[in-house]
Amino acid sequence: MRPPLLALLVLAGCVTSTPSPSSTPSPGAAGEDRTIAGTVAAVDLDPMAYDGDGVVTVETDGGEVRVLLPARYGLCAATYDDWSGLAVGDQVEVRGAVDTRGAVRPCESAEHYFRIR
């Protein structure tokens, strides 16, 4: 017996549906280097006061990406622009390693950086 045509069309629609526009962009595999550029949407440097990572949320063409700025950035191989005056609306470019949660952390390599444009 052949399945009804309507059931096949419904099934085909489920298989070929595209993700919604609000879905999170693919960050890449953990440990992989990634370069992003965009507009600062949020800045939280308070965790750096107690050795936590500062978090800068960057709005890119592919969606929001969290950038983790290490409290002990002086121990990192990366180069950093002075972020003390960083504000929402600033344009930034960042290269760093993707962590297990999809955030970008500029630190481990001399090729990593955090630049304010």
Q: Can you tell me about this structure?
A:
There is one protein chain. This protein is mainly beta. It has one domain (28-116): Nucleic acid-binding proteins (OB fold (Dihydrolipoamide Acetyltransferase, E2P)), CATH 2.40.50. Helices cover 9% and strands 36% of the residues. It contains 1 helix and 7 strands; from the N terminus they run αβββββββ. The protein has one helix at residues 5-15, and strands at residues 33-44, 54-60, 63-69, 79-80, 91-98, 104-105, 113-116. Strands 1, 2, 3, 4, 5, 6 and 7 form a 7-stranded mixed sheet that branches. Strand 2 (54-60) and strand 3 form a beta hairpin. The longest helix is centred in the first third of the chain and has 11 residues, at 5-15. The N and C termini lie far apart (65 Å).
SSE layout:
Layout: H1 5-15, E1 33-44, E2 54-60, E3 63-69, E4 79-80, E5 91-98, E6 104-105, E7 113-116
Parallel strand pairs: 4-7
Antiparallel strand pairs: 1-2, 1-5, 2-3, 5-6, 5-7
Can you give me a brief rundown of this structure?
The protein has 117 residues and is mainly beta.
Structural class: mainly beta
The shape is globular
Q: Which series of helices and strands comes N to C?
A: HEEEEEEE
Radius of gyration (CA) equals: 19 Å
Name the CATH class: Mainly Beta
Spans where pLDDT lies below 50 across 5 or more residues: 5-25
Give the fraction of residues assigned to helices. under 10%
Give the terminus-to-terminus CA distance: 65 Å
Average the pLDDT over all residues and give the rounded result: 83
Named at the architecture level, the CATH assignment is: Beta Barrel
CATH superfamily, by name, is: Nucleic acid-binding proteins
The number of distinct β-strands equals 7
Alpha plus pi helix count: 1
Number of domains: 1
Main β sheet profile: 7 strands, mixed
Predict the CATH topology: OB fold (Dihydrolipoamide Acetyltransferase, E2P)
Strand content: 35-45%
